[in-house]
Amino acid sequence: MKLDAKTTVFVFPGQGSQAVGMGCELASAYDVARKTFEEADSILHSPFSKLMWEGPESELNDTINTQPALFVHSMASFRVFSHLYPDLKPAALAGHSLGELSALAAAEALSFESGLRLVRKRGELMKKAGEMNPGGMAAILNLDIPSLEKVCAEASRAGEPVQVANDNCPGQVVISGAKAAVERAMEGAKAAGAKRAIPLAVSIAAHSKLMDSIQGEWNEAVNNAGITDAKIQIIGNVVAKSIQSAADLRLDIQSQLQSRVRWTETIQLLTGQGITSFVEAGTGNVLLGLIRRINPSTMGYPLSNPSDFVMLE
């Protein structure tokens, strides 16, 4: 086994990592994974695993389906690992945006059923917010956070906010907000020295003030989800520090909707504590790529398919 529990953290991906076929090989190879997908189908009262494995892609990419699909695959991967290596408890967990809910479930602060229902609710509410207040997001390359914060402040207008949404890694930051404000900020970012400003193919302004219309409903859903103290420390998206109590976890999950995902700070905190290995449980390896850009000395291990588990041996 290549991993040392004291220096290993599991991370869980967010929206954008989904792909048709996600989790299919895992379910074929491991009973615990197959049962996880069957459990999800039962909870959602639909052949949800069929959508994940066969598509259509357009339906899988609907945020109502994307978010629970990523959660289910992450939990299936984590359950297989826990089954194979029951004595290896990672030093900490962290998830990017939606992935923070997967981290809560992996830390047993949230049951699988409650977590899946909460994730589905999150997708429904965010889609509703996007229909009520359409917005946009853009990736800004090679501009530092303070400069981009200034650009966003100058591009914002009354009723047209824009803000830093994801601090993914040095040189890759995502902004989010009203479409006109995002467009102004893209121009401002290029004028301030950004290498590129790339609009993202979304109509939902995640992690921005445009989510305020659904904040009350989201707060209520989180409060009713039965969140308990985590059995493994979690690095919160909003605070970028270790949290474990139910109250702190609820607050971070609730605040996350309109707040920045502090991924760079999260990884810097962990590597500063001696973490050297990161395992990405679920679809793809987007987070491992970001982590290597934040700290090139880290080791990364994807955990998506059966072959990935063989690589850990």
Overall pLDDT metric: 97
Poorly predicted spans: none
CATH class of the largest domain: Alpha Beta
Structurally, the number of domains stands at 2
Q: Please state the CA-atom Rg, rounded to the nearest Å.
A: 19 Å
Any idea what the CATH superfamily of the largest domain is called? Malonyl-Coenzyme A Acyl Carrier Protein, domain 2
Annotated CATH topology of the largest domain: Malonyl-Coenzyme A Acyl Carrier Protein, domain 2
Assign an overall shape. Answer: globular
Strand sequence of the main sheet, in spatial order?
Answer: 2-1-9-10
Helix content estimate: 40-55%
Sheet with the most strands?
A: 4 strands, parallel
Structural class estimated from helices and strands: alpha/beta
The separation of the N and C termini measures 4 Å
**Count of individual beta strands:** 10
Strand content: 15-25%
- The CATH architecture of the largest domain comes to 3-Layer(aba) Sandwich
Number of helices: 14
The H-and-E topology, N to C, reads as EHHHHHEHHEHEEHEHEEHHEHEH
Give a verbal description of the structure.
This protein is an alpha/beta fold. The protein folds into two domains: 5-130 and 211-312, Malonyl-Coenzyme A Acyl Carrier Protein, domain 2; 135-202, Malonyl-CoA ACP transacylase, ACP-binding (Alpha-Beta Plaits). It contains 14 helices and ten strands. It has helices spanning 24-29, 31-44, 48-54, 57-60, 63-84, 99-106, 112-132, 145-155, 179-191, 215-223, 246-255, 263-272, 286-294, 306-312, and strands at 8-12, 92-95, 135-141, 162-169, 172-178, 196-199, 234-235, 242-243, 277-281, 299-303. A four-stranded parallel β-sheet has the order 2-1-9-10, sandwiched between helices. Strand 4 (162-169) and strand 5 form a beta hairpin. Helix 7 (112-132) runs antiparallel to helix 10.
